[in-house]
Sequence to fold (882 residues):
Amino acid sequence: MSTLHDFLHKGSFSSLQARLLEMNPVDLARELEQMERGEMLMVFRLMPKDLAAAVFTYLDSSLHQHIVESITAHEIRELIDEMFIDDAVDLLEELPSNMVRAIINNTSPSTRSLINAFLKYPENSAGSLMTVEFVGLYEDMSCKDALELIRHSGVDKETIYTCYVTDKSRHLTGAVSLRRILLSDNDCLISEIMHSSVISVHTSEDQEEVAKKFQLYDLLAMPVVDKEGRIVGIITIDDIVDVIEAENTEDMEIMAALHPSENEYMKTGVWELSRNRIVWLTILMISATFTGMIISHYGEMLQQVVVLAAFIPMLMDTAGNCGSQAATLIIRGMAVGEIHLKDWLKIVWKELRVGCLVGLALAALNFARLQIFADNNLMIDLCVTITLFMTVLLAKTIGCILPIIAKSCKLDPALMASPLITTIVDALSLLIYFAVAQTLL
Amino acid sequence: MSTLHDFLHKGSFSSLQARLLEMNPVDLARELEQMERGEMLMVFRLMPKDLAAAVFTYLDSSLHQHIVESITAHEIRELIDEMFIDDAVDLLEELPSNMVRAIINNTSPSTRSLINAFLKYPENSAGSLMTVEFVGLYEDMSCKDALELIRHSGVDKETIYTCYVTDKSRHLTGAVSLRRILLSDNDCLISEIMHSSVISVHTSEDQEEVAKKFQLYDLLAMPVVDKEGRIVGIITIDDIVDVIEAENTEDMEIMAALHPSENEYMKTGVWELSRNRIVWLTILMISATFTGMIISHYGEMLQQVVVLAAFIPMLMDTAGNCGSQAATLIIRGMAVGEIHLKDWLKIVWKELRVGCLVGLALAALNFARLQIFADNNLMIDLCVTITLFMTVLLAKTIGCILPIIAKSCKLDPALMASPLITTIVDALSLLIYFAVAQTLL
Fold:
């Protein structure tokens, strides 16, 4: 906005600083991104340390590199020390390795060892999502002591609203909300008010599973434990919202025959975009030649009754659409946990009935249309209509079965979405079409 | 689990009650769903009121009706009064209207008027998502007074971690986290520590917009205000996570040519499933007959060079896949806010380049394959290869432009996904194919 720019040019730094303190870090980051780089750096340096760290995490990654290159080693240290460990680790993962070394050498020893530990967790695991800034209490503390501890240590903690309780050797034994502590008597022991059945995850658990647990139990934060059951960190819901969106994007990309990518479209180069598309396109193009072979095989019949060719697109498209409708419902149902493998028989039975209904309706409509608007041989109209019905039924069944098979083979069901199913049911629909035509004509 | 069942049959109710208190309400709800209905009801009645209300909200909706029918009017009143208002309203929206009347007549007058007010907000608006259980503070309170107020009123509040500050006529003027209050001096005034730039939404705002704001600003809760800027409720992030998943499901369904439905697949009847599919299938089936007309138009040529027909499936499938790849990336990018309308020229330019690269690669591969494995006339191979390149280029361009056009006409870009684009590019690819064939052969 012009205001920051104006303050800067008038040299009224105190009004600028007051304005900065009023603004939300997210909006501030967006305004900085619009500014000229030199100005941006000046405004960035005018912010208090904690605000600078907050704004920094919301800045675009291209600016991260610019800022890290432009500020002093001492400023980098302050910035990293002020950031939450998970944000700092995210930053380091996106910077070039020489810069990472420079930063790690400049942070305080305690932060450095934490960052190093975090960088070891595999990508997309619970360990890579977590932060170590949580409040740990002991079972034998009183509520008053607990509140004192929170007051004194809370400033640095990412969330103080759920506190985790451990025994003396840091094994997780319970959890208690700040709300519960506040509403209890001062002398009450933490062990008396804590919940002992805490939902937790292991450091190596996949982030998709973690997100499912968050949704199932409506949690705001969840503790992460190591193999021995000792608490090593927590995951907070704001990071989980991002995981959910990323997993949904991945599913949609796979369902559209794209190699999934974590990069934003606008920031991805033409080469990478092309690479992500070409593998599946090649596989599907080659598979489609089998469909072509079926046509070649029946070339003689097609030459005699060339009008048959005119119905190929309609049959192929309808088959593909029917298959992808069924597949999408099943894939999505499994992704959000509404559909389970054990239901497979019920699903197939349901799709068979839906296929019958939809197939009958489409076939009847199509037959009427052909009778009214086209003046083909009745046998040809019948042949198209029968094929349409059988194709819809088959497409619905295959569309629901393939994702189930993929899931039971521990493959991602999204792989079985529209493009692959379209290719398969295209071939089958043409086989049926020519077989029916050969019988009737 | 058998334990609850065992306790019940041994008549050891106190051990059963102790076990109930230990368990997580979500797990408890899932176990109740597995039990025989009479037993389920007995266990349900053994729970303390607050636990019963929590478990009830997690139960399957078919059990809601059963329980409401089986318990006394007094028990219903206790249950509803104990539930958060937003959960109670959700319950009422799913029950038959005679039951809703019975329940509303049985609740306390204050709950009743609240429920009635909530039932008036349009579905999927911020108003329908919000709850009235929040902590409201005044600007001139001290931190000590604020903490006292939270301690005394907090039990019934859905979240006390962000408190909202109003002036005397309930206009929202700021927000302050419980953390901030706890960490400040007792005598500090709320107006000194509150943030005055609060992100809020209006009651009539669409839930998708609300979810975007939550994600943009990493919020845990957000206040909802009326036209005069007075705070009427808050929305909490656990409800937003559900909104995000529902909106993603809706997008995927629309992208697969399904009429979006909020009901779970396993609980939706065959009639409804068929109805949700048939409208789009009919539209697409009829559109595909235009593609058939193109083939009919070139029937004579096809009769002479029948081998041309064998390449139709490959050309159509590749065109459809290319178009849907581009469309999916653009639709998703717009949904998560990474792609904006103003970027349209950049997007088209990017897709043109990607289309060139991908088209060249596929065309070259295809030409080589035809030269090696098939012994057609060279002109036919050339004709297929040229068409393939032009089709890919065209499909990528159309695939990215249509969602942009939809968005700028305030339509849902997801409408422009694979099935519709497939139908359009199918027709275009055949037009190109036959035009090229006529020129070369």
